[in-house]
Write a structure and sequence with these properties.
Asp/Glu/hydantoin_racemase, 47% helix, peptidoglycan synthesis, 262 residues, alpha/beta, Rossmann fold, EC 5.1.1.3, 2 domains, six-stranded mixed β-sheet
C-alpha cells in the first residue's frame, strides 16, 4: 500500500524529498490542494473543510498512512483527522522544541516563521507556552514565501529583497536559530543563510517528520519493498500532463541543489 502526503500546495514536497532519503522503497501519493492554496490567509473553518475533503480522497485511494505535510493543516485539523480514521495520520509542527532546547546562550533568541493561520492557532501558541520558559521566541509570518514557491519563483533578485525587508523587523544579531515553520519556506533555506550570520541555525521539521513516519511503519511491520513511485494529484485530479509533471521535477531539483550546497 502507498503512503499519502498532503499539503495545501507544493510545500509538502520538501517533506517528501527528505522521506525518500530514508524510505526509498515505498510508493507515494502526493496531493496538492492547488485550487485552494494558500491556506494561511483564509478562515479556519474554510481551511478545515478543504483539509477534510482532501484527506478523505487520499484515504479512498487505499493508503496505509497519511502525512499532513503542512504545518497549517496540522494546526487546524489533526485531532479531527486522527479521530476519524484508523490509520496513522502524521502531522507537523514548527521545530520549536529543538530550537529552544539547543538555545544555549540565553542572550540569544529564536525566530519562528510560519503562515498567519499557524501563528494564530492555539496549537503553536500552546507549544511555545510549554517550551519557552525563558521567553526567547519571536514569531514572524512570511506569506510571501508561499506565493513565491507556488509560482516557482526562486530567483535571488526577487526573493531576497522580500526576505531582507521582513527580517529587518528584528535585529538578527540577537538570534541563534530561525525555525522554518511552513514547509513552503524550506525551498528558501539558502536565501535565509545569505541574510544572517554564519552561526545562525536554520531548521525545519521535515526530517523529523520523515523519521517519525519510518518509526511508525516499522512498529506496524508495514515497511514495503516498492519502487519509490509517486502519483501526483492536484486537488483530486491525477497529474498526467507532462508540463505539470515537469513542474514537480523542477521542485525536486531545487531541493537537491539546496541539499548539495549545505
Amino acid at each position: 500500500m502507498k503512503i499519502g502526503f498532503f499539503d495545501s500546495g507544493i510545500g509538502g514536497m520538501t517533506v517528501l524529498y527528505d522521506t525518500l532519503k530514508i524510505l526509498p522503497n515505498e510508493d507515494y501519493i502526493y496531493y496538492a490542494d492547488t485550487i485552494n492554496v494558500p491556506y494561511g490567509p483564509k478562515p479556519k473553518e474554510e481551511v478545515k473543510k478543504y483539509i477534510l475533503n482532501a484527506v478523505d480522497f487520499i484515504i479512498k485511494q487505499g493508503v496505509k498512512a497519511v502525512v499532513i505535510a503542512c504545518n497549517t493543516a496540522t494546526s487546524v485539523a489533526i485531532e479531527e483527522l486522527r479521530a476519524k480514521y484508523d490509520i496513522p495520520i502524521i502531522g507537523m509542527e514548527p521545530a520549536v522544541k529543538p530550537a529552544v532546547e539547543n538555545n544555549k546562550d540565553l542572550n540569544k533568541r529564536v525566530l519562528v516563521t510560519a503562515t498567519e493561520l499557524t501563528i494564530k492557532e492555539e496549537r503553536l501558541q500552546n507549544l511555545i507556552s510549554k517550551l519557552d520558559n525563558e521567553h526567547v521566541v519571536d514569531l514572524l509570518p512570511l506569506p510571501g514565501l508561499v506565493k513565491f514557491s507556488e509560482g516557482l519563483e526562486f530567483r535571488d533578485e526577487i526573493v531576497l529583497p522580500y526576505l531582507k525587508e521582513q527580517l529587518s523587523k528584528y535585529d538578527m544579531k540577537n538570534y541563534e536559530t530561525i525555525v522554518l515553520g511552513c514547509t513552503h519556506f524550506s525551498y528558501y533555506k539558502d536565501m535565509f543563510k545569505k541574510l544572517v550570520q554564519p552561526h545562525v541555525n536554520i531548521i525545519d521539521g521535515n526530517y523529523g517528520t520523515a523519521n517519525n513516519l519510518k518509526r511508525i511503519l516499522k512498529e506496524m511491520n508495514s515497511l514495503n519493498d516498492g519502487n519509490g513511485d509517486i502519483s501526483f494529484y492536484n486537488s483530486g485530479v491525477k497529474v498526467e500532463d507532462k508540463i505539470e509533471l515537469a513542474r514537480y521535477d523542477k521542485l525536486f531539483k531545487r531541493l537537491h541543489d539546496i541539499n548539495e550546497s549545505n
